[in-house]
Amino acid sequence: TKSFGELTIDVEKPNEWTSSKSVTIKETSDEYKTEYKIRKYNEETKEIEESEFLEYKGTFKLNTMATNDYPILIIARYNDNGTYSDEKTYTVVNIDTTSPTNTKPVVNVSTTKPTSEASIVIRQDDAESGLDESTIEYGYSLDNVDYTWQASSELKKLKSGTTYYVKTRVTNNVGKTVE
Length: 179
Prior knowledge:
Oligomer: single chain
Low-confidence stretches: none
Shape: rod-shaped
Strand content: 35-45%
Radius of gyration: 25 Å
Order of helices and strands: EEEEEEEEEEEEEEEE
Largest sheet: 6 strands, antiparallel
């Protein structure tokens, strides 16, 4: 059995949600060619696909979705003219490339008595990294153009007979914002 040396796969911010991740393969030997391949889920075809082995030439970026349900697997090895080392693998998750949904909110108004208050119920969601709860904003407008934004879901001092437009604005945990 040939001794090749160690390979270590390092991934940037492995436990944080990001929109991409940098991958570095650390080698203890420069005597052999280092190769890697990637196995991932293709969202369009709904199939698992795997690349051929590629020569490692330095840090590379992963910028496709990677979740616990559909992780990206990095497989690395040394190649000595067709004699291969054992493969090292690393499972990558927490890459979110999509924005939150832009589902319209629901407005709850009291139907049992006239009221000057309403409550906006957010319906936006982000199935991958989730919503950053501290960024949720509720907007209202009289002309559907210029919105006033606030942290509270409660609208107060509404005028009877006036049309109000409402929407919500959210940011997911990788910084993608949608109204």
